[in-house]
């Protein structure tokens, strides 16, 4: 009843501001109902979880990859692996529609889509000795399925890394404080690497705690750096300069020994991530902030300044990770299935961890919506839409019905220690201001808002750069694996010419998207974030195709709608979004219309921008064709099985009785 | 053990798993080695072939 009241309040309240706790109560109740009833139904009826069946962690236990592990430990491990910057950035961008569309999508998408996907893929991987999504796609759907999954994964990695780097660039440009702090994380990580390797081998938590203290000192030092003109000069960088530095960093992180930079940064980022998410949750509960953003804004008509496009389909591709993310299927079929000790625990780990991730998205939505709408739009609108001059931008935003003045924005920028907060697209600065608002109201007041703001920027940038360096390395391995089939030496992961060549290939690919975003007068996010959302949701489509095929082959066709309905929804969303991104006549939405507009204007940079639009069209087209192929291949397989032309046979590992059940009985 | 003690030890177990300390202990037990620079270097090489190849989520 509390949940119903809360959902009704956030859905029906108009004209008055509401308290953020309504969102929290609605979310907690929705998740509780979803977990208690829907996941139980899936576990019992669709998947028929078997408490007597031994998992690969037990059968193949080797003390390395396959290790039966306590369910809470696996839950924490899985959550730490799926929680990335996506659930923080997506809801902040989607807040341009108001708090309602994004919140409802996060709740419904998670309960009926994301949690289901993560749960079923985890269970199916557990029943197949921990096989990856691409292997399951190949075995259960067909060869096309396996190939499409591979292409989708590498495409997403490249686009994700380009977008992630762009968010960092937009957060750090002209910000000596933020740039100094983030720059310091590199020597801190190197120091941690040496500490772990030479001084105290294996004491990761100790090294991470030490690294965290040094990072806090770096935030404090950033203030000094920003106030000292001689030092600030070196850390006040333009977007193109930052882009070049991040590209060089990505290459170095991919090519350097893993213990020196990548692993310590990964540990440090996880340490900060878990602590900050917990801190944000406590902050929201402690101050119970009011949401200043209305439930719905005028931009539901598709004319939004943050990104162009109507609620359908764009809200649903903008928020991926908090509702449903194809990327999670890679984690659910990666390390997690090899740690599950009992099949029945897949429900808590798969479905439950996604609920926790979805809650993070709700907190991000709250952080964005506690800002005055005028402030939110001033930060998130690109200069190409609202104008580069503060007075012009403020006048444009005020004319939309969201009053803001250049003086107010200057004052806010001063309070958080920035030169300006206008045109800081990408979502990270807006989230940081919202988070700093919540934190400073909980602890320290406005006097320390600048410290909290830069703590939030550091948290996001550290988080994103970790995704960037780890993703570059993973992409490198994938390319090396593929090239190894053609020429054996190229597949050797320790052969330096191959390492350098494939690192350059991956960094060059995402670096191109980053450069494209940096040079885009509309801020880059307008075209690149939807591209990322589309590719991520297309991977979810692949995962749900695999899941539906397996459900049908298990002889449970009547329960196939559990995965088929979210699949149909994602197909309609991604295909519609792709169509709009390619063919829409509005140049702010359609790549081709934008290219045509640029062709007509014939400016000095038009040629390059036109090429970018055509490249984005090509990428979108290739992804859609790939997914259409796996859809057709899956549908044909379903028809063959349902019509009896093919025997329903799943590729599960043989049943072995678990010793844990016998131990329990004893 | 008290309830708070159990929760604390569970939380520490979660953190030890997330931060690979448990994996390192398992590695030492399996290989029969004592913790040292060399053992940690071997452990990291092994991790590079498994966990560090797994994609990080967005």
Key descriptive features of the protein:
heterodimer; A: 666 residues; mainly alpha; Amino acid/polyamine transporter I; 2 domains; two-stranded antiparallel ribbon; 28 helices; 2 strands; B: 58 residues; 69% helix; flat
Describe the overall structure:
The complex is a heterodimer of chains A (666) and B (58). Chain A has 666 residues and is an all-alpha fold. Helix content of chain A is 73%, strand content 1%. The two termini of chain A are 43 Å apart. Chain B contains 3 helices and no strands. In chain B, 69% of the residues lie in helices and 0% in strands. Chain B is flat and about 40 Å long. Chain B has one domain. At the A-B interface, helix 4, helix 8, helix 9, helix 10 and helix 13 of A face helix 1, helix 2 and helix 3 of B.
**Structural class of the secondary structure composition of chain B?**
mainly alpha
Q: Which runs of chain B of at least 5 residues are low in confidence (pLDDT < 50)? A: none
Distance between the termini of chain A: 43 Å
As a percent range, the share of helical residues of chain A equals over 70%
Question: What is the domain tally of chain B?
Answer: 1
Number of helices of chain A: 28
Count of individual beta strands of chain A: 2
Query: Roughly what is the average pLDDT of chain A, rounded to an integer?
Result: 91
Hey, which two chains have the biggest interface?
Answer: A-B, 62 and 39 residues
- Alpha-carbon distance between the two ends of chain B: 39 Å
Instruction: Give me the side-by-side strand order of the main sheet of chain A.
Output: 1-2
Q: State mean pLDDT of chain B (0 to 100 scale).
A: 86
Query: Quick one: how many beta strands of chain B?
Result: 0
CATH homologous superfamily title of the largest domain in chain A: Amino acid/polyamine transporter I
């Amino acid at each position: 009843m509390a949940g119903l009241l809360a959902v009704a309040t956030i859905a029906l309240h108009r004209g008055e501001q509401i308290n953020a706790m309504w969102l929290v109560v609605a979310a907690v109740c929705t998740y509780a109902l979803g977990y208690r009833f829907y996941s139980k139904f899936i576990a019992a009826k669709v998947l028929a979880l078997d408490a007597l069946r031994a998992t690969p962690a037990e059968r193949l236990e080797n003390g390395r990859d396959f290790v039966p592990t306590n369910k809470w430990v696996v839950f924490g491990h899985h959550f730490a692996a799926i929680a990335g910057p996506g659930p923080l950035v997506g809801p902040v961008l989607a807040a341009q529609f108001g708090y309602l569309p994004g919140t409802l999508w996060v709740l419904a998408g998670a309960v009926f889509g994301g949690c289901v996907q993560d749960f079923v893929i985890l269970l199916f991987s557990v029943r197949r000795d921990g096989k990856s999504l691409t292997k399951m796609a190949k075995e259960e759907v067909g060869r096309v399925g396996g190939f499409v999954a591979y292409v989708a994964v590498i495409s997403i990695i490249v686009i994700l890394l380009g977008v992630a780097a762009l968010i960092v660039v937009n957060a750090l440009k002209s910000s000596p404080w933020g740039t100094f702090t983030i720059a310091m994380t590199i020597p801190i990580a190197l120091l941690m690497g040496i500490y772990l390797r030479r001084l105290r081998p294996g004491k990761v938590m100790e090294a991470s705690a030490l690294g965290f203290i040094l990072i806090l000192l770096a935030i404090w030092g950033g203030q000094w750096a920003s106030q000292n003109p001689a030092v600030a000069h070196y850390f006040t960088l333009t977007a193109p300069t930052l882009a070049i530095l991040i590209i060089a960093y990505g290459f170095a992180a991919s090519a350097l020994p893993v213990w020196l930079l990548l692993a310590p940064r990964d540990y440090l980022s996880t340490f900060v991530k878990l602590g900050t998410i917990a801190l944000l949750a406590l902050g929201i509960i402690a101050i119970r902030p009011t949401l200043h953003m209305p439930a719905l804004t005028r931009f539901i008509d598709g004319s939004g300044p943050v990104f162009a496009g109507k609620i359908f389909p764009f809200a649903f591709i903008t928020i991926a990770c908090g509702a449903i993310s194809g990327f999670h299927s890679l984690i659910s079929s990666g390390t997690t299935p090899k740690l599950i000790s009992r099949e029945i625990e897949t429900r808590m780990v798969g479905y439950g961890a996604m609920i926790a991730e979805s809650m993070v998205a709700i907190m991000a939505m709250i952080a964005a919506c506690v800002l005055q709408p005028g402030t939110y739009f001033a930060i998130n609108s690109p200069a190409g839409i609202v104008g580069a001059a503060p007075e012009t931008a403020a006048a444009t935003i005020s004319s939309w019905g969201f009053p803001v003045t250049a003086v107010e924005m200057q004052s806010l920028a001063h309070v958080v220690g920035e030169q300006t907060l206008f045109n800081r697209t990408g979502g990270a600065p807006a989230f940081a201001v919202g988070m700093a608002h919540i934190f400073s109201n909980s602890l320290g007041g406005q006097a320390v808002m600048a410290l909290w703001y830069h703590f939030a920027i550091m948290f996001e940038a550290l988080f994103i750069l970790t995704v960037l360096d780890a993703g570059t390395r993973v992409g490198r391995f994938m390319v090396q694996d593929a090239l190894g089939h053609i020429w054996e030496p190229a597949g050797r992961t320790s052969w330096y010419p191959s390492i350098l060549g494939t690192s350059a290939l991956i960094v060059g690919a995402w670096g191109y998207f980053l450069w494209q975003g940096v040079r885009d007068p509309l801020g880059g996010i307008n075209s690149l974030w939807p591209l990322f959302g589309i590719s991520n949701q297309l991977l979810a489509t692949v995962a749900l195709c695999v899941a539906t095929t397996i459900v049908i082959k298990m002889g449970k066709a009547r329960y196939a709608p559990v995965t088929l309905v979210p699949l149909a929804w994602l197909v309609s969303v991604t295909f519609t979004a792709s169509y709009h991104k390619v063919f829409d006549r509005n140049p702010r939405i359609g790549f081709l219309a934008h290219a045509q507009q640029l062709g007509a204007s014939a400016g000095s940079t038009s040629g390059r921008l036109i090429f970018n639009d055509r490249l984005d069209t090509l990428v979108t087209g290739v992804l859609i064709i790939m997914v259409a192929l796996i859809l057709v291949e899956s549908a044909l397989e379903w028809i063959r099985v349902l019509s009896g032309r093919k025997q329903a046979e799943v590729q599960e590992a043989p049943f072995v009785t678990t010793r844990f059940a016998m131990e329990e009985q004893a | 053990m008290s309830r708070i003690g159990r929760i604390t030890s569970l939380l520490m177990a979660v953190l030890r798993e997330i931060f690979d300390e448990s994996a390192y202990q398992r590695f030492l037990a399996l290989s029969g080695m004592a913790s040292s620079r060399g053992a940690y270097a071997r452990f990291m090489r092994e991790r590079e072939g498994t966990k560090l190849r797994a994609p990080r989520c967005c």
